[in-house]
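Note to self: keep these together.
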Amino acid sequence: MDVLEMTRHRHGELVVVSLAGEVDVDNVSKVRKCLDEAVEDHGPRLVVDLSALTFIDTTGLGVLVRLLANLRDRDGTMALVAPDGQVLRRLRRTNLAPLFPIYDTLAQALG
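Structure:
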């Protein structure tokens, strides 16, 4: 799957944004817009489900880091769902993994 799919739904006080496919320089502006709108519409408590993501480049990682910084400025939170795979390895290789609470499943992130 190389087409990006984005969905979002509310779960109590949290908003869950699920990304599937690939995030790269060609579609990162759509991802940024989706995440920003989710926070604007539902508040600063966010879970980003990356479990169906097959690829994320540095521009996509940059969007996540900037959003995390913005949420922290608003006393918000952001957790990632990234089971073992390419996305988690990229987060670890770039030393970004320690910035985020990272869960194996969406159920764990919501629990």
